[in-house]
Specification:
This protein folds into 2 domains: about 10-120, Orthogonal Bundle (Rna Polymerase Sigma Factor, Chain: A); about 125-185, Winged helix-like DNA-binding domain superfamily/Winged helix DNA-binding domain (Arc Repressor Mutant, subunit A), CATH 1.10.10.10. It has about 190 residues and is mostly helical. It is built from 8 helices and no strands. The protein has helices at about 25-45, 50-65, 80-100, 105-110, 125-135, 140-150, 155-165, 170-185. The chain is elongated and about 60 Å long.
């Protein structure tokens, strides 16, 4: 018997059976108590910046809250789902830093964020590393060195230019043309 003050049961939530329960205060509190530390640890490990790590966790929870109804309990736990979302957030932040390392703002990161892909990351890091190595080998030496220093080592254009003894614009041009070349390669290259 349910009256006007009854507490909604799991099946009574707005999202239905596929709800991750992040749309409820209790569900969100549970996630914060059990998974926030893990999410922050992963973000800090990947980004190396406490501010960016905190932003990544907030963005992950915001995306999860917005797409609460898309959670599929048959595919894994809420924690696994959150970790998949966080992986995509971390990739988006990394891409933003790679494209504009010194000029990226929080608004740019949020605008570029996209929740189209969600999958576990257990073997992806290894495959990504091998693919990056293979793709970098296809670039001319000057472009490869610029990309490695600016994007992979996250160094400022100015510092790389000083090391190479060339103008900053030359380093930016090398990175630009290298990234353009890499974007034109087929996915399985």
């Amino acid at each position: 018997m349910s009256g006007p003050r009854s507490v909604p049961r799991y099946s009574d939530t707005a999202c239905g059976r596929r709800c991750a329960r992040l749309c409820t205060d209790a569900g969100l509190a549970t996630v914060l108590a059990t998974d926030q530390g893990l999410l922050h640890w992963r973000a800090m490990r990947r980004l190396g910046d406490p501010g960016l790590a905190e932003h990544a966790v907030q963005e992950t929870l915001l995306r999860a809250w917005r797409s609460c109804a898309t959670y599929d309990p048959d595919k894994g736990s809420v924690r696994t789902w959150l970790l998949s979302i966080e992986r995509n957030v971390l990739i988006d932040i990394g891409r933003m830093r790679a494209v504009r390392p010194a000029e990226t703002s929080w608004d740019d990161v949020e605008e570029a964020a996209d929740l189209r892909r969600s999958r576990p990351d257990f073997a992806d890091d290894l495959a990504d590393g091998l693919l990056v190595t293979e793709l970098l080998a296809r670039l001319p030496d000057s472009q490869r060195h610029a990309v490695v220093q600016v994007i992979l080592c996250d160094r400022a254009y100015r510092d790389v230019a000083e090391d190479l003894g060339v103008p900053v614009g030359t380093v930016k041009t090398r990175v630009h043309y290298a990234l353009r070349s890499l974007r034109q390669l087929p996915i399985g290259a």
